[in-house]
């Protein structure tokens, strides 16, 4: 018959096993930073991935110019994509980008969003490979913008592998432009690969593992409760028998 010590041992084993599984599937979520809080204040190191927005303030003054430098780790590269985008001036001044614009730039001054920056009404599609160092900038012209643009930029630190080689240990193969992302960036809800592969294949497995842990945990607790109740009933009956 199971004793209390046996039950405690089983409980500890289950907790250890769950912790081990959780550590094996550790996921890293991006922090959000606001560009205007970092303008011209040096380099921002991207560790994993990060969400960059223009500002927390609902409105920005005219003649605002803000540029932030983003840096990947040694031998790594940065890739950037715009998840959400809305710029009021796009709808009121569609002639050019003199009133307001955003830009993504590489260290050798390649302007990813066009020579004059970007200010159209549609979200810029695609993912841009910036290299080890990249820049994000926001410019407002001589008129105050109606409201701060809603730009949600995802910047991910990746590693570009050689052709016909696999990714190094700890990295996930995006199957796109030789990009490998850290395993911790898979299944975090953010499209770091640029083709959603990091949010597709393994996530089903992770969801299954988590569901298995939850179901297993519930069954385990039920067994403990039932055994406890049976043990209590048996003891009570035994005491009653001795008293008679
Ligand atoms: Ca991801």
UniProtKB/TrEMBL annotation:
Keywords: Disulfide bond, Membrane, Signal, Transmembrane, Transmembrane helix. Residues 1-26 form the signal peptide. This is Uncharacterized protein LOC106071918 isoform X1. The keyword Phosphoprotein does not apply. InterPro entries: LDL_receptor-like_sf, LDLR_class-A_CS, LDrepeatLR_classA_rpt. It comes from the Eukaryota. The chain crosses the membrane at residues 209-230. SMART domains: LDLa.
